[in-house]
Every structure is written in structure tokens, then in C-alpha cells.
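mind reviewing this fold:
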Amino acid sequence: AARRGLEGMEFAVAIPGSVGGGLRMNAGAYGRELADCVAAVRVFSLDRFVLEERDRTELGFAYRKSNLVEHDLVVDADFLLAPGDSAAIRKRMDEYRRHRASTQPGAAQNAGSVFKNPPGDSAGRLIEAAGLKGYTRGGVAVSSLHANFFVAGPGSRAQDVRDLVEHVRSAVHAASGVHLEPEIRFVGAFKQQDAA
């Protein structure tokens, strides 16, 4: 888009994941989200074995969610972009990249923001206020750079991430009364976390 002088999605630079996954969870950053710029998607339903087009108004977008379900595969999407100056677009993208590099553990193994921000606050601030910045459990650590990012170390497993998520949710609730809602999605079977 930048090469072609099309603006409107600069905020999405360096957001980890795929277009389909981003649309399913309405990925966003810097006050914008994919719902702001998608026009339509083509979805293959694994339940009904049909390909269908859905207009943005049919996608039920809200903060970090849509009504796309697990068995909907996004195969194509149309985005509404505006003509712009390629150099200015690249400059904004570079600024976003620099900001991410200075505030998020980009090169480390992580899935991006772990929790949704609760109304009027930020998950990272609540996690840090609960004393968990840098906390490690089962080979997975709360990032010392940004507390709403969890960094997976060598040999860690998905269960370790799940256990840390539950520990952090419990600790934040005990410290602040706030129930954090995961932004990441867990796929598979997980055992119940031991009380520790």
C-alpha cells in the first residue's frame, strides 16, 4: 500500500499474525483497528462448505472481536484506503516500527498483547502494578519491557503460557479488583492450573 501511495493501514505495521486472524479479533494499534478500514471479506465456512462475501456491517466488530467464528476461513478481504504521499506513509510506518521496538519485545517469542485493555485503563499498567513485570513461570515471562506481553523461553509449552495467563489474571484481580480478559485465543486442550 505504501509503495502504491495508499494510506489508512499504517497502524497495522508489525502487528503479528495473519490478515484473517487480525480480522477475526479486530486487531488494532494507535487508536485504529481493522474495522476502520475493511470494506468486505470473503469467507469459506468449514461448517457449511460455502464461500460467502460479508460486508463490514455484517462482521459485528467491537473492541478486539468480530462475529467471525472458528470455522470461518477468511480467504480474501477488501480494504478502504485513501490516496496519499508514499514518503509520508513510509515515515508514519517507520515511526510506528520505532515505537514498537522501544516499547515491545519484538524479536522475542510472543503473541502480542495478551489481555484486552479494560475500560479506562491498560492491562500492562495493571499487571505492572500487581508486581508482575519480569515474573517468570514455567519458562514463560511477563516482559520487562511491556507487562502485557509474555515472552516464551526455550522449551516452554502452550500450557506454560496458559498457566501464566491464569496466574496473572488472578493476581491482577486480587490487587485491583479488575478481571482481565485474554486477547489471545487458546486452541487445544489444557489442564486446570494448580493453585500456586
Remarks:
- DSSP finds four helices and ten strands in the chain.
- The chain has a mean pLDDT of 92.
- The radius of gyration is 18 Å.
- Residues 158-176 form the longest helix (19 residues).
